[in-house]
Specification:
mainly alpha; elongated
Length: 90
């Protein structure tokens, strides 16, 4: 004797739903290339203003990051003080 839980009922309902979907999918005819080309709008050759702006901002951000990184590296360099004895002529 097996006990049926609500998950068993949900699983069987999902299985039946999946079986119906597969039957519907099997009845459909495959699409032709011409119908797919008509459904997809053609891309224009002009660049999108949002894309150009995004690329410009990205470029400026990367240059700014490089510049600040370089300044930080220069600032973090340790200084070295060297004393040189000067000889007097004589």
């Amino acid at each position: 004797m097996t006990l049926r839980t609500s998950t068993d009922d949900e699983d069987s309902a999902r299985s039946v739903e999946l079986a119906h979907w597969l039957v519907e999918a099997g009845r459909r005819k495959p699409l032709r290339r011409e119908s797919i080309r008509c459904a997809v709008p053609a891309a224009s050759g002009a660049p999108d203003l949002r894309r150009v702006t995004l690329l410009a901002v990205l470029g400026l951000a990367s240059v700014q990051y490089w510049y600040l990184d370089t300044l930080l590296e220069i600032t973090s360099l340790q200084s070295l003080i060297v004393f040189v004895l000067a000889r007097t002529a004589g």
